[in-house]
């Protein structure tokens, strides 16, 4: 009988394997059920190859609340390479503002029409319906600490914003941030869910609540 040649799992191993698959199914079931918040930070894992480092929950909340305050009632907010702030804004479902996410990582396309593919190398390659100066505030976190990346991202920011800018980037970029966007450093220090080697800071060009 050919079946005799097939290795048999012990009852203990088989039970453990079944338990593993059951837990896996339950996790996937949670993600697809209404009880799972697809907007919670960490629902899409960081991809370090894309230079992704999510903010801590406290920092994302603080930046999201600042964006809502700055945008005003019925305001429009653009999250440029800042998905964890977008996710935190979406947790405030029902509040009187609208938000979109401009992001290179196409995994965020699960958020539907609010997702806009964005590559900082082509700063003005944007959809036609994304009108110039149509956002009350742009919150941006350029993926790389280089002047080239900041300069190109700045083109997009200046195209999108009506005026207000909230920039998160390294402390070493202070001079370039002032040069390209006219923003000044805040007292508030953003934190990430994982400690980074580079010190990060926030920069604004308006009277913010981050002082």
TrEMBL record:
One of its GO terms (biological process) is methylation. Coiled coil: none annotated. Keywords: Cytoplasm, Methyltransferase, Transferase. It is found in: Cytoplasm. Pfam families: N6-adenineMlase. GO terms for cellular component: cytoplasm. Its main location: cytoplasm. The keyword Methyltransferase applies. It catalyses: L-lysyl-[protein] + 3 S-adenosyl-L-methionine = N(6),N(6),N(6)-trimethyl-L-lysyl-[protein] + 3 S-adenosyl-L-homocysteine + 3 H(+). One of its GO terms (molecular function) is protein-lysine N-methyltransferase activity. It comes from the Eukaryota. InterPro entries: DNA_methylase_N6_adenine_CS, Efm5/EEF1AKMT1, Mlase_EEF1AKMT1/ZCCHC4, SAM-dependent_MTases_sf. This is EFMT1 methyltransferase. It comes from Herpetotheres cachinnans (Laughing falcon).
């Amino acid at each position: 009988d050919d079946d005799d040649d097939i290795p048999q799992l012990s009852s203990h191993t088989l039970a453990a394997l079944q338990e593993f698959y059951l837990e896996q199914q339950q996790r996937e079931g949670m993600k697809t059920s209404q009880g799972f918040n697809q907007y919670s930070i960490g629902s899409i894992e960081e991809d370090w190859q894309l230079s992704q480092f999510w903010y801590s929950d406290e920092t994302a909340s603080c930046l999201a609340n600042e964006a809502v305050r700055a945008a005003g009632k019925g305001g429009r907010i653009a999250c440029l390479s800042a998905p964890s702030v977008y996710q935190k804004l979406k947790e405030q479902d029902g509040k009187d503002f609208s938000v979109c996410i401009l992001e290179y990582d196409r995994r965020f396309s699960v958020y539907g029409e609010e997702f806009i593919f964005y590559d900082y190398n082509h700063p003005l390659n944007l959809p036609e319906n994304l009108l110039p100066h149509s956002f009350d505030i742009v919150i941006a976190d350029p993926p790389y600490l280089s002047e080239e990346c900041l300069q190109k991202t700045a083109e997009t920011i200046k195209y999108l914003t009506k005026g207000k800018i909230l920039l998160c980037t390294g402390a070493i970029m202070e001079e370039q941030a002032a040069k390209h966007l006219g923003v000044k450093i805040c007292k508030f220090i953003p934190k990430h869910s994982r400690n980074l080697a580079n010190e990060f800071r926030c920069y604004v060009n308006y009277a913010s609540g981050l002082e």
